Amino acid sequence: MDWTEIKIKVAQSDTETAEAIANMVVPYGIYTEDYSELEKDALEIAHIDLIDEELVKKDRTVSIIHIYMSDEQNPLESVEYLRARYDAVGIKCEIMTDSISEAEWADNWKRFFKVTEIGEKLVIRPSWESYDNNDGRVVLSIDPGAAFGTGTHATTKMCLELLERYVSQDCTLLDIGSGSGILSIGAALLGAKKVDGVDIDPVAVKVAKENAEINKVENKASFILGDLCDKITERYDVVCANIVADVIISLLSNVEEFMKEDSVFLCSGIIDIREDDVKAAFKKYGYEIIDEAECENWRAFAVKKI
After folding, report:
1. What are the residues whose beta carbons fall under 8 Å from the beta carbon of 157, sequence distance 6 or more?
2. Which residues of 222-254 are buried (b: 16+ CB within 10 A; e: fewer)?
3. What is the pLDDT of residues 79-129, one digit of tens each?
4. E strands, 53-185, where?
């Protein structure tokens, strides 16, 4: 499958807002070239102080946001939408597009996907990177492939941090819209005895199964292709969904069918301008917020049925 790469060049000071808008056109994440704190990030994330000369030469005043879309997703329509939204909020930008093959797409991601420590227990390690685990963290190795989902985006980070708090030994978990499987696999590594991920994208299911094998949790983590209501009949201790606000609001009408009496529902992918809408839906469907997180322009919640 061929993909269109959309590159959005903005002033570094506009990065967070520009990223939030960019995420409106894709449910599975973006990546951003931002070299404004290159030396600091190199020390904190990669634990190195020797930086490639080409990186040192990068323009620190701008950021470049990368989005990948298949032809079926109407990338040119998304470009026009992005132009209109950036114009509406007064962000000056340069938007470029290029066609790339799936192999090229994977190589581009590998250049920017690095080891990332999450919360207090987890570390996300690209399958092609090494990591010196001096702190005894739970290492989650991931190859996003064409399914996206690296754990480095704020929405996924927050969901993983919530998983650290609510996944207990021998619990069961349902991951709605599992993508590359990162949340499902993280839950399995944190001690869940049974994890089911469900996604409507066959590529996502394939990649998630491969990632489960990489992490040696294929005996605990299963990935199912299809619609949630058609494929899932069990009830779980924890249900999670890192999607978008509209889908989360829709899920609240029936997600209780998949939850045990004292289950917790973890949801992320909620942009700040939709926070009140999601909270109103919690109230409408009888859910109480027991925990929440925020990062950049994004929100995540843990809720229980009242």
Report:
1. 116, 118, 119, 151, 295
2. bbbeeebeeebeeebbbbbbbbbbeebbebbee
3. 888 888 898 889 999 999 988 766 665 666 566 567 788 888 888 887 777
4. 62-70, 93-101, 116-118, 122-126, 138-142, 172-176
Q: How far is Cα 148 from Cα 108, in angstroms, rounded to an integer?
A: 12
* Angle, helices 182-189/154-166, rounded to nearest 10 degrees: 30
0.70 exceeded by pTM: no
| Distance between CA atoms of residues 303 and 209, nearest Å | 28
Which H or E element spans position 222?
strand 221-225
- How many residues appear in the chain? 306
Q: What is the rounded distance in angstroms from the CA atom of residue 186 to the CA atom of residue 192?
A: 9
Determine the Cα–Cα distance for residues 234 and 219; give it in Å rounded to an integer.
Answer: 18
Tell me how far apart the alpha carbons of residues 33 and 35 are, in angstroms, rounded to a whole number.
Answer: 6
Tokens of 77: 């329509």
